[in-house]
Amino acid sequence: MNSVVMHHYWGSPGGGQLVCASAAYALEMAGMNPVLAGTFSFDPSSYVRWYGIDISKYRRYTFSIGPRAFGLLSRAFLWMPARKAIREAGAGFLFTDEETYEPIRKEFRDIKIAQYIHFPMAASLNVKYRSLGFYYKDDPYIYLRYGKFPLNMYWWLYRKAIGRYQSDDPFRSAETVMTNSSWTASVIKSLYGQEPYVVNPPLPPMVPINPDPLPFEQRENTIVMLGRFSEEKRYDWVVRELGPGLKGIRLVIFGGAVTPTQKSYMNSVIELAKASGLKVSLNEIGGDLSVVPNASRELINVTMDRAKAFLHATVNEHWGIAVAEAMARGLPIVVHRSGGAWTDLAEGGNNGIGYSDAGEALDEIIRLVKDPGIMKSYSERSIRRVSQITLENFSRKVIEIVKKL
């Protein structure tokens, strides 16, 4: 059987791209001959560099609907290249991490559909679910990025477009539903009354697990952050609220800065840090704050190996692949007590440290930097937890679920 893996924006690294590349890998293992569908053309060879997964051998169906800056809006029209892929490949199975597949469901009655939900957009878009606390005007994950002009206009357009094609209930439209964390699963159940399979995204194969982390004495008083430069990552909050208290502790931020919006946010974080009296180093490690956009994996790994903690500031992070990557290097993690990073990676405090406000976050960071016993304990817990979320384990679980259809 041929299958189609449908994702809206294959052209940049992120959690969704990792999941879909891993799904293609799993489907190939199951003998289901995957082909890829997306709205924009992309270079599949990048996936070896980003994740260590080769997707260049899979046929691709894409078309451009406009400037790539409109990646969010492209979600609404993803079903078009996916429909072509299903027709030409004669596919009997569709794996999608998007909700806009209703036209496909209506046209191909016999196709089996597996939907992977990073976060149920109905909770953000439909006002009738506002009491859950994830409506776009209430949820920092979305509002920090799209709450102000001009991006609020872009969000409005996206809401209008996606409403035409999204599934009202994935448990009705798809044969099986998966999600990334037990936290996201609880949100999905509160919406639809049914529980999806929890399939944690894998650690990318090209991120090796460090079997022998450096001891406390050989590490520097450094904490690391990793993730694209975007408002929901809250780098500005960290600089403003924690920066002045990090005396003698260097903060290193590795972030993707490719689009004009990402570069603008990065520059605003730098200016904020300077205004707060912090010494800032750009593109190198030094000073009170080091900002390194688009860093190499080698530099990230070396810096993490010599640091004492990893800080993640996003509220309601659905999963947190950057958190998993830090755990693989043996770094203790400090995450907000919300989202999948807290429930499934830190496991509610068993494998990582949580915080609710700036004061608590600062206290925990200082404790890790000063106490070798605590740092060593959480370093060992990080490695133990992340060893369970391999590509092989992800593939095994996906295949097991798909074979039930």
Summarize the structure.
With 405 residues, the protein is an alpha/beta fold.
Structure description:
With 405 residues, the chain is α/β, with parallel strands linked by helices. It folds into two domains: 3-204 and 390-402, 3-Layer(aba) Sandwich (Rossmann fold), CATH 3.40.50; 216-386, 3-Layer(aba) Sandwich (Rossmann fold). The chain contains 18 helices and 14 strands. The strands form two sheets. Strands 3-2-1-4-5-6-7 form a seven-stranded parallel sheet, with helices on both faces. Strands 10-11-9-8-12-13-14 form a seven-stranded parallel sheet, with helices on both faces. α14 (321-328) packs across α17 (372-386). The mean pLDDT is 93.
Secondary structure category: alpha/beta
Give the terminus-to-terminus CA distance.
13 Å
Helical fraction? 40-55%
Largest β-sheet summary: 7 strands, parallel
- The H-level CATH homologous superfamily of the largest domain, spelled out, is Glycogen Phosphorylase B
Instruction: List the uncertain runs.
Output: none
Number of beta strands? 14
Q: Would you give the CATH topology of the largest domain?
A: Rossmann fold
* Count of discrete structural domains: 2
